[in-house]
Amino acid sequence: MGAAIGIPLTFLLILAFFITLSPQISAVSYPINVWPKPTAFSWPQPQITLLSPNFKIHFPLNPYLHQAANRYRNQFIKEHYNPLVVPHLNLTSSPPLKSLTITVTDDSAPLTHGVNESYTLTIPSPYQSTTATLTAETVWGAMRGLETFSQLIFGNPSRLACDLYIHDEPLFPHRGVMLDTSRNFYGVSDLQRLIRALSMNKLNVFHWHITDSQSFPLVLPSEPELAGKGAYGEEMKYSPEDVKRVVEFGMRYGVRVVPEIDMPAHTGSWALAYPDIVTCANMMWWPAGVDWTDHLAVEPGTGQLNPLSPNAYKVAKNVIHDVVCMFPDSYYHGGADEIAPNCWITDPEIQAFVAKNGTLSQLLEMFVDSTLRYIISLNRTVIYWEDVLLDASVNVSPSLLPPENVIFQTWNNGPSNTKKLTEAGYRVIVSSADYYYLDCGHGGWVGNDTRYDQPPGTDTGNGGSWCAPFKTWQTIYNYDITYGLNELAANLVLGGEVALWSEQADSTVLDSRIWPRASAMAEALWSGNRDATGRKRYAEATDRLNEWRNRMVTRGIAAEPIQPLWCIRNPGMCNTVHPFLAG
Amino acid sequence: MGNGIRSPISFLILLALLFPLTLQISAVNYPINVWPKPTTFSWPKPQIALLSPKFEIHFPSNPYLHGAAKRYSQLLIQEQYHPLVAPPLNLPDSPALQSLIITVTDKSAQLTHGVDESYTLVIPSPSQSTAAAISAQTIWGAMRGLETFSQLVYGKPSRVACDLYIYDEPLFPHRGVMLDTSRNFYGVADLLRLIKAMSMNKLNVLHWHITDSQSFPLVLPSEPELAEKGAYGEVMKYSPEDVKNVVEFGMEYGVRIVPEIDMPGHTASWAEAHPDIVACTNMFWWPAGADLSSRIAHEPATGQLNPLASNTYKVVQNIIKDVATMFPDSFFHGGADEVTTNCWKSDKSIQAFLAKNGTLSQLLEMFITSTLPYVISQNRTVVYWEDVLLDANVSVAASLLPQENVILQTWNNGPNNTKKLAQAGYRVIVSSAEFYYLDCGHGGWVGNDSRYNQPPGTDLGKGGSWCGPFKTWQTIYNYDITYGLNEDEAKLVIGGEVALWSEQADPTVMDPRIWPRASAMAETLWSGNRDETGMKRYAEATDRLNEWRNRMVTRGIGAEPIQPLWCIRNPGMCNTVQPYVPN
After folding, report:
1. Where is A103: in which H helix or E strand?
2. Among A238, A428, B52, B305, which lies 20 to 30 A Cα-Cα from A293?
3. 3-state SS track over A274-292
4. Strand B381-385 vs strand B331-335: parallel, antiparallel, or unpaired?
5. A484: chain B residues, CB-CB within 8 Å
6. In a structure prediction context, what are the per-residue pLDDT tens digits for chain B, which is 583 residues long?
7. In chain B, which among 528-547 make CB contacts under 8 A with chain A?
8. Exposure pattern of A251-283 as b/e (b: 16+ CB <10 Å)?
9. How big is the A-B interface in CB pairs under 8 Å?
10. In terms of DSSP H, where are the helices of A79-187?
């Protein structure tokens, strides 16, 4: 393997001429598949050929592409994936494929929102040529193509699909997974394994919900006490070096790392270092005898930054400053979800403010206005949870939230809120709890819960998880994140993120809670969830996902099984052919 | 460690005199706990002592106790468990605890149903004596005591709770986990890890649902074709040597292995080797346009043994003989659940039988009366699923199921069926799907399921899992398996088993699906789910289970978290204090 410069463009043109270009998604069932399914996959006469043990990748000079090419070259040679269903293809007596030549138009394009991820991959029949070609606009597109190439290889000795043409590009530029590392802690190796799996699925954003009321694991040079006192323990912290490793790892895998510091709510953990800037810390989250609307926090772990405390801004700005230094991505997530009115109202100073006809929305506006300006001054686009605009009791006027600087992430009310946000002119990231929350359906986790001590026969409904039921991979796969939007509004939907909140998750279940359900979103946001005729393709996707899940497992990602192995071995026999009956 | 002979009975009696004997379960909150909570745990003045690095276990000669003592003496020295909440106990200047002396009344008692598992553990204050003592009726009771001792040791250097007295014995003799290894395969290492975790939780029965319609992984010397053709693959089989390893490992950990060969339903996989003895094979499980009641199998993969085929009994007897040879336990599980009427009705010979006024129940009776006596002749007690007696369409007369030889395992209708079975005079094992099925609440798994492609806003109810919602650890903990029974009926309930059906499970998720929820049952069936006032103790159990789950994780069992770590660090603050409001 070495950096090559020659561009076999003429060869490409000849091949493109020979192979029928079908830009629509093919409904053809291929013996070898790629997840997410490529936009255009033309393989009219499926054939395979051996991969030379001396297989080489030629690529333009770029440090990240260099590392990716190295990694994939090793994988091509060593993976020897054993498919659940062996492709019915005989090895031709043709010479083995010897090399892959990568060409990149703009090898300096940074990994950022909207970067071109398209690529074209041509694997000729080795009778005609023993060199495959990958062309891409950017190194990030080239990485997507390398992943595709890797999934076309299987067996021992390694063989691969050939005589094919793929053109591929994503439907949505923002395709991510959100992980909460505050409720329970995850080590750096867990985060890296997550990034690796994201890359396999052509997902490109790791939204890192780093801090919350339960713990503050991020060590910040300007505010070391926050993690010093707020982390779960000495070995449950992310040092600046750890962050650097995660960010750098993301670059190598083409995955952006977007940090979230949730504030002003969800900040109970800040009170260990700064009791003066946090209201209602260390209180019972939902006191006995009070209505639900009077809770002090939506879940155990009370505490919100006090917008009337000057020191709150000093600390918040130090935090923002450090985070921006540590995370190069141009997106910064500011949280701003779930303000509990009663938490602020417990504070005497805020009581005085309210007594003088001040409102809690004014308090939030005060906080958001001051911190948002600062974040924007650091050249960051800010993502907030939708609450900051849509919360029924405490919210901020849109005039303070410039659409050119602010993106909203929706999680309530399914497509209705997506519509509200786009109609207000904002770009939107979709994380609808009805579809994309990976923690749902696991029951409640608060202690002393009498719901689970009812007489036998009591209807336990959906089981006590607020966002139940469990979101199956099909639920996720079938959701159209632009449902009900007109074209203009749909253009404002940047993409989506599945989210794993970690009250009932940690490294023991990280892989199986996320995979292969995040793979379902990955395909829906990359090439869609419909076939060439416009019909949802979840039935056809099932066997492909079984195979892909198995491949992820062999690659060290403990994705959960979606069916008995029997199903993929007996195509169609595990289906239902009965219509859905409501109720 | 060495073989000690000196019986410290007099020392034990002396200590027992010094401690106030409280036979009821204590609600006292101790800084160190044992899971499942012992029956009697007297520790009036909590103290700790160092564990000598040369700590020795003295025990009577017995190969299994020898293995256990060796294992535990390593664990005691090497584990150095770091508790989530450090016990607020200072190390005194007293000498280190030097040894543990085990005495066993009946060393030859076999590991079998109802074997005495009681033990007494005394750990003196080392200022008085440096030898702790376990006395038990059997070596199996001694193993339970060793596990208890291990949970009282923590920290680096190792220290141990002392100046305490424990008397312990289980409420129910049968405490198990059922694992289905047919829908998806588990390797021997997974089974061994399961047995290890069961032993940690003082569970004593691994009910191994080995075969089903999807695959037949068990290699049988008399019927090798069954696995050869019916297993998922060469690497997905259990050889006789594998079984021996599992059974022997169980003996070393005090866990019985009860094999289940499910028949006459759930036998499609047999048809690969013996198509002549299986009705309705390779049919579509629920044909288009047919009512649910007309389906051919409860789930994909059709096939039931044909009671009219003479070869059926030859194959079945070979299997029973081999299984009885390979598995020494006195229980044999014969399955007999979910006979589907339409499967049998699809068979020509059975159609002829029915035309002559035969009934399907007669067919099942024919099968049972032709196989049950053979199982009994192998000196086995037979466990059947309740269906054989209670199924509404196809069932067997109680007169053909002698109570002295047959135990029934209930899974439907919660306590109602337990009562029916006990009233009919049968011993019962409880695996109520409403409480003890670990796979529930994960959505449906059949393909092409339009339920997951409904317009946004459609009520998804329990999410499509037939036994949804998910069973939380509290649901499992709080279930009283003798609910609604009178004293005589309650005596027939020999215990319970949580069950993991594996349509959506395999080694990637085995640990978190089973643990710590099986731990919840383990405590309820060992010492109960109530405190000495008779109140359910689930609230108090929460922090103990958090700690125990963490210890299991450090021991290599990937048990899932039940709460944010914040909760155990802030006792009581994650509770709800609101009453249950029915939906």
Report:
1. strand A97-104
2. A428
3. CHHHEECCCCCCCCCCCCH
4. parallel
5. 456
6. 344 333 444 444 444 444 444 333 444 689 999 999 999 999 999 999 999 999 999 999 999 999 999 999 999 999 999 999 999 999 988 899 999 999 999 999 999 999 999 999 999 999 999 999 999 999 999 999 999 999 999 999 999 999 999 999 999 999 999 999 999 999 999 999 999 999 999 999 999 999 999 999 999 999 999 999 999 999 999 999 999 999 999 999 999 999 999 999 999 999 999 999 999 999 999 999 999 889 999 999 999 999 999 999 999 999 999 999 999 999 999 999 999 999 999 999 999 999 999 999 999 999 999 999 999 999 999 999 999 999 999 999 999 999 999 999 999 999 999 999 999 999 999 999 999 999 999 999 999 999 999 999 998 888 999 999 999 999 999 999 999 999 999 999 999 999 999 999 999 999 999 999 999 999 999 999 999 999 999 999 999 999 999 999 999 999 999 999 999 999 999 999 987 665 4
7. 536, 538-539, 542-543
8. bbbbbbbbbbbbbbbbbbbbbbbbeebbbbbeb
9. 295
10. 139-151
Within 10 Å of residue B284's Cβ, how many Cβ atoms?
16
Query: Chain A within 8 Å of B217 (Cβ-Cβ)?
Result: no
Residue A152 vs residues A43, A44, A70, A193, A354: alpha-carbon distances, Å: 12, 15, 18, 22, 64
Asked if B508 lies within 8 A of A559 by C-beta distance, the reply is: yes
Map tokens 């027992």 to a residue: B16
Does the interface predicted TM-score (ipTM) exceed 0.90? yes
Using CA atoms, how far apart are residues B368 and B363, in angstroms rounded to an integer?
9
Residue A132 to chain B, least CA–CA distance (Å): 34
What type of residue is B457? G
**Report field, pTM of the whole predicted structure over 0.90:** yes
Of B286, B452, B478, the CB nearest to A472: B452
Chain B residues inside the 8 Å CB shell of A538: 448-449, 452-453
- Using only C-alpha atoms, what is the Rg of chain B? 25
Active-site positions of A read: 338
Burial class, B82, CB count within 10 angstroms (exposed 0-12 / middle 13-18 / buried 19+)? middle
Which one, of B460, B466, B463, lies nearest residue B501 by Cα?
B466
Task: Mark yes or no for CB contact B580/A441 under 8 Å.
Answer: no
* Residue contact B445–A563, C-beta within 8 A: yes
Q: Write out the two tokens for A147.
A: 């992943």
Enumerate the active-site residues of B: 338
